[in-house]
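Q:
My hope is that you can spare some time for a protein that puzzles me. I hope you can help me see how the letters and the tokens relate. Thank you; the sequence and its tokens follow:
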Amino acid sequence: MSPGHSSPEIAEFVTFLAKERNDSPHTVKAYERDLTEFAAFCENYYGGPWTWAGVDRLAVRGFLAAQQRRGLAKRSVARALSALRTFYRFLNATQGLEVNPARAARTPKLEKTLPTYLARSEIEELFKQAEARAGAGGFQQLRDLAMLELFYSTGMRLSELAGLNDPDLDLVSDQVKLRGKGKKERIVPVGSHATAAVRRYMRQRDVMVGGKGEGRRPVFLNQRGKRITPRGIQLAMKRLFEIISRGKDLHVHALRHTFATHLLDAGADLRAVQELLGHASLGTTQVYTHTSVERLKKVYHLAHPRA
């Protein structure tokens, strides 16, 4: 029997990614789309009934080649392969499936890209303008400044900020409890500027919603008094990014990159930055050392008389 487009296995896997692994909504949607496209490809490839257990590595290679012929970027093709590998590991764990046809497929060689981050002058301009907007005390402006401050102060992910509840924030001890990938918890310090901005916003928020939902109340709300969605946060940060000249090219994740790069530039220990970011592997954090080295090279060539 063919799994078809609405495969129950894919649905279970998507639930696992969202609820158990706590992956970002963006990753969950991308993996679901990749697997649904693979299921559609298999229907044509096998020309009749097929099963996940019966898929061979030639089908996986054919699918990846078809994706590249469609003009998909190498990074997207690599993600599709990662989706298949993870999906088959999930089937192995939950259904005892012994094959993983995606394991032997080669990952497309990716061009090395350094993370996009903001220079110190850009960050200063961003905060100067965001603080000016919040000066009038409007709910949205105070909230957006508080979110910006937390992103830059802690390096938290978009999904982590969206999921914050009041008990997660300890504004007396200046720290926040974050739930990262795989529901792993970590405690991250919060800077004094961020603490002050969050306090100002929360006072306005509490006036707006009154006593509703106290205790487990979401930290950040939309103007209807509901938890702000990741998309809502992206739009809010996009409005702030427009303040600086290259703002149209920036995304929320640039604040996480900026947090890590500025810490390393100031001499922070790489392993400490790894813990703050919640990276499972030190190798993931090391990309920021390349960013710092590139910046140092520019400074060197500009400043050294015999460079």
User: Anything to note?
Assistant: DSSP finds twelve helices and three strands in the chain.
